[in-house]
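Prompt: I keep going back and forth on a fold encoding question. Comparing notes only helps if you start from a blank page. Show me how you would write down a chain together with its backbone fold. Please set it down just below, with no commentary around it:
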Amino acid sequence: MKKFLLAVGLLSMAGTALAAGKPCEELKSEIAAKIDAKGASGYSLEVVDKGASTDAKVVGTCEGGTKEIVYKRG
C-alpha cells in the first residue's frame, strides 16, 4: 500500500511540473536555435500575452500556457 501511495504522489508531482511549462526565455532560445540551424535570418521572436499576437505566427507557448512566443520576418 505504501508503494502505491508513493507512486501516486510522484505522478501527481510530475503532472504539476509539466503543467507549469517551460520558462519563456528558455523556450525562446530553443526555438531560435532551431530556426538558425535551418539557415534563416532576418526574423524576430517575441514573448507576448496569450491571444495578444496580431500579424505574427505563434510558434510556442510557455509559462503554463499564459504566454506565447511569436515569429515575425524582417
Observations:
- The beta strands are 43-49, 57-62, 67-73.
- The CA atoms of residues 16 and 53 lie 27 Å apart.
